[in-house]
Amino acid sequence: MSQMQGEIISAGAPSSNLGNYEEAYANFNWEDVEKQFSWYETGKVNMAYEAIDRHVDEGRGDRIALRFNDPTREETYTFKDLKEKSNQFANVLRSQGISKGDRVFVFMPRSPELYVSILGILKVGAVVGPLFEAFMETAVKDRLEDSGAVALVTTTTLLPRVKRDELPLLHHIFLVGKDIEPEAGIIDYFKEMEHASSDAEIEWVNREDGLILHYTSGSTGKPKGVYHVHNAMLQHYYTGKVVLDLKEGDVYWCTADPGWVTGTSYGIFAPWLHGATNVVRGGRFSPGDWYDTIQKNKVTVWYSAPTAFRMFMGAGEDIVKQYDLSTLRHILSVGEPLNPEVVRWGYKVYGHRIHDTWWMTETGGQLICNYPSMPIKPGSMGKPVPGIQAAIIDDNGKELPPNRMGNLAVRTPWPSMMRLIWNNAPKYEEYFRIPGWYISGDTAYMDEDGYFWFQGRIDDVINSSGERIGPFEVESKLVEHPAVAEAGVIGKPDPTRGEIIKAFISLREGFEPSEELKAEISRFVKEGLSAHAAPREIEFKDKLPKTRSGKIMRRVLKAWELNLPAGDLSTIED
Ligand code: PRX
């Protein structure tokens, strides 16, 4: 288990914001972080104020807040620009009666309008619900329905995926696009923005009031709404300082989409709380375009994901040399296990260590990380962020000694911990079933030096290219296909994507297995749910292994796939 533990890459930047890790950990207290916010004095809380308007009020309004690039647009916005635009959108929302506590969703590709919308929603005290642009009808409907969303900001291109007739609570759609026909419930985004005042009163909220609702997947049931509150800004600010190591003048690029938690906590909140220039790039992954984004924007701090780094490694060293990446000073990764060879490759080719960080949608912010001032053990997620107590515990809550694998758990609470699973108290309570602890669902061990090493998931959640996919949601879609009788879905190990989705399917009477049918079924999921949830591999079986109560045993499917013993089969049907 620990043969890799000996390898160390020494500290990259001893003079980073964190300084000596052990000292920072020992001397930490959250009140020192609270003092960084204007509400510590004024009592007036709002994430959008702290992230944007405050910089204007304190004389930093002319700094660049957003550099947006995609194949069709290149635009920059100062903090003052974003303050004014988000004020306008807050006024547009108010004109439709949207107010504190309402759930307002955003469903669009990355664009300046997306970021302005999110900030405007926060300014009226409403709760933001981000939807990934690749979601199709069912995925969109499930989330809007569960949350009771009253409004949605979307584009003319994506609007057909919104089943308005099945969403009676969804009264307002703010539509971003051209030539919008007047229609009940449809509000022309650009037209309204044109008339809206750029002055707006901010809705001051409580630290425990709702900020954002991120839907994510578990192994059972539909996606669950993970609810975060404004207080999360303490975690965002502090980790922005000591993990992202943000300093004045930094140009920061987080490659994640705001449809996922990395794209909000670290694609919006953390960088802007620090007044950094935030680079946003739309469009798909391509090594050349991504290196060009670093070169063109003079990126200094870069936060990405293992799948991307593996693809860069696959693209080779030569392409790196075609770009000037000399502005980079700090690189980070999140979302899935970061292979030691990728860390070594990055160190050799970029001349920088890649700093792995561990956290989840539910944790709202980074919890276990590598810091510029701390030695890296390639393959390890690092050590707990100051203020966070992490441990490996057994199923009874007993802390295990070093090098023993068990549940990766975190002492409750911390500022950015989720406060609810929307409409589902039992699901929420499952995470806290051992008093005093949050149970992550990941297994790991801690070595003698206090470094944590990821081992796996205890449930059936799939992690493909860092995107979290619930097998149940995919299976539910699969069985809607007329040829599919039953379906079981697992994550199959994959060298680039970490895992890919593999579906085992038994067919209905009258359907014959064929390659065309596989392609058709996969397309059905892609078009109904989302591209990243579509199985890349399908295998037809006469029968699927089930418990006597009729539940498909994914563990047996996985054992088939990996040629492993299937384990205890005492509950199998026959
Ligand atoms: O299994 C862990 C994996 O991603 C899960 C959380 O996924 P999600 O909520 O989508 O959030 C992803 C980004 C915050 C975790 O339970 N995971 C996340 N980071 C790492 C990781 N696995 C290994 N190493 C990591 N650094």
Keyphrases for this structure?
alpha/beta; 5-stranded parallel β-sheet; 18 helices; 26 strands; globular; AMP-bd_C; 9-stranded mixed β-sheet; 574 residues; nucleotide-binding; binds adenosine-5'-monophosphate-propyl ester; single chain; EC 6.2.1.1; AMP-binding_CS; acetate--CoA ligase
How would you describe what is shown here?
The longest helix has 17 residues, at 79-95. The protein has 18 helices and 26 strands. The protein starts with 20 loop residues before the first helix and ends in a 12-residue tail after the last helix. Strand 24 and strand 25 form a beta hairpin. The protein is globular and about 70 Å long. It has a 9-stranded mixed sheet, sandwiched between helices. A 5-stranded parallel sheet has the order 4-3-5-6-7, sandwiched between helices. A 4-stranded antiparallel sheet has the order 17-18-20-21, with no helix packed on it. It is α/β, with parallel strands linked by helices and 574 residues long. The chain binds adenosine-5'-monophosphate-propyl ester. The site of adenosine-5'-monophosphate-propyl ester (PRX) has 21 residues, from helix 10, strand 14, strand 20 and strand 21. Residues 216, 261-262, 334-337, 356-361, 381, 440-442, 454, 457, 463, 468 line the site of adenosine-5'-monophosphate-propyl ester (PRX). Pfam families: AMP-binding, AMP-binding_C.
The ligands found in this model are:
adenosine-5'-monophosphate-propyl ester
Gross morphology: globular
Instruction: Give the low-confidence spans.
Output: none
Radius of gyration: 24 Å
Helicity range: 25-40%
Distance, first to last CA: 37 Å
What about the largest sheet? 9 strands, mixed
> Going across the major beta sheet, what is the strand order?
2-1-11-10-12-13-14-15-16
| Structure summary, number of beta strands | 26
Secondary structure tally, helices: 18
Averaged pLDDT, please?
95
SS class: alpha/beta
How much strand? 15-25%
